Amino acid sequence: MILANRYQIQKELTSKAGRITFLAQDTESQNLVIIKVLQFDNYFQWDNFKLFEREVKTLENLDNPSIPKYLDYFEVDEENIRGFALVQTYIDAPSLEQALKQGRKFTEAELIELAEKLLDILTYLHGQIPPVIHRDIKPSNILISNRSGNSVGDVYLVDFGSVQTVASKDSGTITIVGSYGYIPLEQFSGQTTPASDLYSLGMTLIYLITGVHPADLTQVNGRVEFKSSEISNKFSKWLVKMTEPYLDKRFDSAKTAITVLKSSDENSGDLLHLKPANSQIELYRDRHKLEIRSEKRSFLDPEGTSCLGIVLVGLFLLFISPVFGFFPICIIFMILICISRLRYYSLSRNQNIFKIQTIITIEQNGKFFISKSDIGESNYNSISKVRDIHFIAYNPGYIFNKYFDETGKEMKRGRVTIPPSLSIYSGANEYRVGNAQMSKAELQWLGKEISDFLDLDLQIIYPTPKVPPEPSCGGGC
After folding, report:
1. How far apart are CA 117 and CA 241, in angstroms?
2. At 34, which CATH number?
3. Strands 389-395 vs 458-460: parallel, antiparallel or unpaired
4. pLDDT digits (tens, 9 = 90+) for 228-287
5. pTM for this one?
6. Which of 219, 189, 226 is nearest to 205 (CA)?
7. Domain final residue, candidates 262, 288, 317
8. Distance, CA of 366 to CA of 358 (rounded, Å)
9. Is 425 part of a structural domain of the chain?
10. Do 392 and 333 have their domain in common?
């Protein structure tokens, strides 16, 4: 059979209700092509036509070597087939589904390479205006070819029959598309976003690791449970983040997902992309524990600061002693002792740099504690129960130079600076996270990591300065 007097049908590839896919040869170019036909039969539905038309328009506007190219679109009116046909390039490659059924195993390095290449494709799709959401990422829609050595080879994403653009969301009846087990909760309610594709990709990778269909995996609180000794803890954590059941817990974009995946930091949190580039804060996180390590540096510790103060006061007394006619030897002796003590700090404490290390540890369903130490010697501990934590607050900090009373009258009380801060509230106690040397960006990053780990909202606190009351005239004004 020849369609449109040009395409010689070679064989039927798939046949579903209202749809047929053929492998054909273009008699003009002699190239093999794929022809997808939407039939006018008893299974025809208007929603299917809208999806088919959307697929045509989407492919027509895309240009990426890892995606089939649009070639032609025409109406079919043959004896046994009536409908519309989409012609696209043929990619001679097996699907991941076929490879898995043939017994192929994937190493972690291959899985990461596969994930990176698919995320590159999704970055391209989601970067379109408006963004293009595939909505049906699964092993049978991913093709691989030209495998060499430890490389997974070329990767292709096909079948855009469920595609949606953000601008094309329709109101009214919801048509659920995608494959059960691979689609996230929001897709069932028609609230698909680019992060929905990340969930499907994550589930695809988990299927390749376990060999078990995602719909058959055990779930706890909506999260799939999977264990494998074949992958690292870092990659496992990344997959957990990709497949979070709730949209706001997932990576917000393919770019973010690939940034975290490529990170060499084994102890990184789930929101590594928010960490400032020059930050020295260390953060370790897994499903059960969050640990934050930071250092506050100063030239002297409290004892050294006291010595410096004594030296300065002593020098002042020596300066004024001739005026009062005395020259106390004890002051000179005290100054010499303090100077020798300061010299000890300079030589023994890392070139006069004093460090206070703070470790904040939060254990799921366990304890929350803060420990501070002077060069490894613990001198402060604060312990609380995680279940008592009810509030996480970030204060961005402000500078006030104008104040107004209750009547709206301007009151000038001078300049007041409120530095940024991050606090954890447990019971009636407030625990400060970080120190004055941390930047706003660092505090925001830590706040979001803690918020995400504890599943508590991060509250933004807007400070209100306390203004002294106006002097009262006792009613005699």
Report:
1. 18
2. 3.30.200.20
3. parallel
4. 778 888 899 899 999 999 888 899 899 999 988 987 665 556 677 778 888 888 888 777
5. 0.68
6. 226
7. 262
8. 19
9. yes
10. no
